[in-house]
Amino acid sequence: MKVLILGSAGGIGKKLSEDLSNASSDIYLGYHTNPVDSIYKSKKIDATSFEEVENFIQCGKEELGEVDAIVNLPGNLILKPAHLSTEDEFYNTIDINLKSAFGVVRAAGKLLDNCSIVLMSTAAASIGLSNHELISSAKAGVEGLAKSAAKTYARKNIRVNTVSPGLIDTPLSKKITENPIVLKASIKMLAAEKIGEPKQISNMIRFLIDPGNDWITGQNFIVDGGLSSTK
């Protein structure tokens, strides 16, 4: 498979890149600040810029010869109630999470056919968690985008799905995982009684981009250790 990954320097991105590479897929990676392993073909990119995202996808298409799948992973996590959130924090969260996803769909609609797109949401967008107003607002938009885009671009054989992780052990979740009290309370909310690992999200993404699963589109897949079933 020929796969483009944006936001590849994070915990999930690194694991997905490793898993795809081990499965003999050709990958082209986009990163923002932290360069990825030099063994991979990559390009520095601002995922919040429509122009740069379109250029990245065009470069990836030229580099790999074709594109079978695009995975959009950029994200941030600001945990605070709405009344304490600033306008800058709101727009920053929207840009990193929703605008980056919209940019991928926009560019793919112009440049590609016969492709699977996976966008990242969050379990918090579906169930409601305290102090998650910023990220939930942005990711709910991503889910709506995926459903509409799946319908719009079906004529080009482009599938669009979202994956909604719960608490995953990545650098993005350090505010939770490095606080023993908060971590213990978070684990108590999970039916699985443990936090997730990047490999579990990588497994779901690889399932969705597999050509054998080409009847799946416009869907949201929650991978949260049972959080949504116990809330």
Task: Walk me through this protein's architecture.
By secondary structure, the chain is of the alpha/beta class. It has one domain (2-168, 196-225): Rossmann fold, CATH 3.40.50.720. It is 45% helix and 16% strand. It has 9 helices and 7 strands; from the N terminus they run E-H-E-E-H-E-H-E-H-H-E-H-H-H-E-H. The chain has helices at residues 11-22, 50-64, 87-111, 124-127, 133-152, 174-177, 180-188, 198-209, 227-230; strands at 2-6, 26-31, 41-44, 69-72, 115-120, 158-165, 220-223. A 7-stranded parallel β-sheet has the order 3-2-1-4-5-6-7, with helices on both faces. Helix 1 crosses helix 8 (198-209), helix 2 packs parallel to helix 3 and helix 3 runs parallel beside helix 5 (133-152). 43% of the residues are buried.
Overview features:
alpha/beta; Rossmann fold; 9 helices
Number of helices: 9
The main sheet comes to: 7 strands, parallel
Order of helices and strands: EHEEHEHEHHEHHHEH
**Which residues form runs of ≥5 with pLDDT under 50?**
none
CATH architecture: 3-Layer(aba) Sandwich
Spatial gap, N to C terminus: 38 Å
Mean pLDDT: 95
The CATH class label is: Alpha Beta
Instruction: Give me the CATH superfamily.
Output: NAD(P)-binding Rossmann-like Domain
CATH topology: Rossmann fold
Radius of gyration: 17 Å
Overall, the morphology is globular
Instruction: Write down how many β-strands occur, each being a DSSP E stretch of 2 or more residues.
Output: 7
Provide the structure class: alpha/beta
Percentage beta strand: 15-25%
Count of individual domains: 1
